[in-house]
Amino acid sequence: MGRRQTSSRRAGSGAAPHCGQESEDGRQDPRPRLRVTKRRRRPYVCVVLRPHFYALEEILTFSRTLAASLLVAGAPLFAANKEHAVTPIQNVTISGVVRDANGAPVAGAIVHSGTSYSNRNGTAPDGKYSLTVPGGRTTLITIDDFAFESVTVPITPTKDATVDFTLTKSRPTVTVKLTNGETHILDLGTSQFAFLVTFSGYVRFDNANFCKPDSSTFAPSKSEIAKIIGPATPVNFSACCTLGPVMTLNVELKTGEKSQVYFNDSCQGNEVDFLGRELSTGVYNYFNFANIAEIDFP
């Protein structure tokens, strides 16, 4: 008997079947074939081929590429991330007095460094403060006050050190003279015109709300006024108020213009006041225009 002819290649010889191989009867085998390709230094890739279709061969997976890149890029970071000893900084307490250019103590000044505050309500009436900060290194100390320009001073604090500060540049002020002879110095920045609403409090403005004798409205800002001459008195003047008496006084502007004016806010019987923070105490004071003899603006 004649032997059936077989392929000259044997299993295990490293050869692999390929697409398009003819069957023993000479016809094209339509079944899918597997082709194993071995590439140097790369993983094996198995591709399924079908007649009339193309296949993509992935050489190296994305995850392996990304992992290798991260290892190379991250090497310097791991080398630089070394622990080092940190010497703890001890806190120390300093104290002193805040004064103005004339040597007078400043009440209500805020002394602070970063998040450390001496007292959020400000210095005592005698200008004294106490502040706890890191010691042994240069630290910036800031002093804020409504009546002065802020000051920042670098110091190297030591335990129980006495450090005084001076606020040299004051902000503009307003002088209020009362009919009883008292004189009050107020900060211009916090000074305002106001009228009192019963059970509600004060409504405040940086501008006055006046009515002129010709019935026109007049609203000068506090920076435009040179002087207010009082005291305010109630009068009947229907051109500016038809509900009853209205408070009146005289105003002089920095342009030199002078005029008698009427308080629109007093037409309904509301009290009209002038208010601001007292320079010496930092406390807000309210003065009824009926008790004000004169206000001098800077």
Features:
298 residues; mainly beta; Immunoglobulin-like; 4-stranded antiparallel sheet; 40% strand; elongated
Description:
There is one protein chain. The N and C termini lie far apart (132 Å). The protein contains one helix and 21 strands. The protein has an eight-stranded antiparallel beta sheet with strand order 11-10-21-16-17-18-14-15, with no helix packed on it. The chain has a four-stranded antiparallel beta sheet with strand order 5-4-7-8, with no helix packed on it. It has a four-stranded antiparallel beta sheet with strand order 13-12-19-20, with no helix packed on it. The chain has three domains: 33-79, no CATH class; 91-167, Carboxypeptidase-like, regulatory domain (Immunoglobulin-like, Sandwich); 173-296, no CATH class. It has one helix spanning 62-80; strands spanning 33-37, 45-49, 91-100, 110-113, 116-117, 128-134, 139-145, 148-155, 165-167, 173-178, 183-187, 192-197, 201-205, 210-211, 217-218, 225-235, 246-253, 258-263, 271-277, 284-288, 292-296. By secondary structure, it is mostly beta strands.
